[in-house]
Amino acid sequence: MPNIRKLLRASPNLKVADEDAARKPLSSGDKAADKQLVEDLARQISDLQDILYAQCKHKVLVVLQGMDTSGKDGTVRGVFGRIDPLGVRSVPFKAPTEPEKSRDFLWRIHQQVPAVGELVIFNRSHYEDVLITRVHDWIDEAECKRRLAHIRDFERMLSETGTVIVKCFLHISAKEQKARLEERIADPNKHWKLQPDDLKERKFWDDYQKQYETAIRATDADHAPWYVVPADSKTHRNLAIANIVLETLQDLKLAYPPANPAYADLKVD
């Protein structure tokens, strides 16, 4: 298997194109085998997360961003839902509340970043504050540039204080989103996933792609890299993200804390 992070790392001149969303560079061509591989990778991640939690030294933040239906929830279930939950948190960010809006846009984000020993998954994130806000002109270009600068500083601060950051853009095509929205409409058991605004936001597709390009280009850094994950295939999406997270954890050279010599003579009566 090639170095997945190098393969999927965002380009400095990123162009978000629909045709790239259907790519499956990691697929074996056998869907069942790929699903099994995701499970195998998740077990390896779980083993390393157990050491991360026990070692209580590193902090890991995984950011999942993407258009509606791109698979953020599916990734949380399909990859992170398979690992030991000890030391793992998933944080879904919705529209800010009034108390949150009365503070700086990063205030609610900072409260949820990982503590030592934790792996935290952001389902949406601080990037919403330079995406939907800019698409709808709730902030102007100057404020957007200021916020992007704040994000760069914020992520650099997290990195310098021990947080390992992984940012994944789940890239789906407009055609695939249409199919997934239609599936939700057709299935009453999936109506809970559908919001009327999802259909309204789709009308701004091109604007969102432009803002994703701007945000990713402006905030990609070696200490906070962006990975562009082709996500028209749910199985390939999970395969890619599982590989990215596993490679990241392997780089930490994790090890259980040293044995306590004082325990050598302990006896349990």
From TrEMBL:
**Could you provide one GO biological process annotation from this protein's UniProt record?**
polyphosphate metabolic process
Domain Polyphosphate kinase-2-related, chain residue ranges per copy = 30-251
Kinase: is it a keyword of this entry? yes
Work out whether the entry's keyword set contains Kinase: yes
> Which molecular function GO terms apply here?
polyphosphate kinase activity
InterPro entries from the xrefs? P-loop_NTPase, Polyphosphate_phosphotransfera, PPK2-rel_1, PPK2-related
UniProt entry keywords in alphabetical sequence:
Kinase, Transferase
Which is a Pfam family this sequence falls into? PPK2
The family annotation for this protein states: Belongs to the polyphosphate kinase 2 (PPK2) family. Class I subfamily.
Tell me what this protein is called: Polyphosphate kinase-2-related domain-containing protein
Source organism per UniProt: Oxalicibacterium flavum
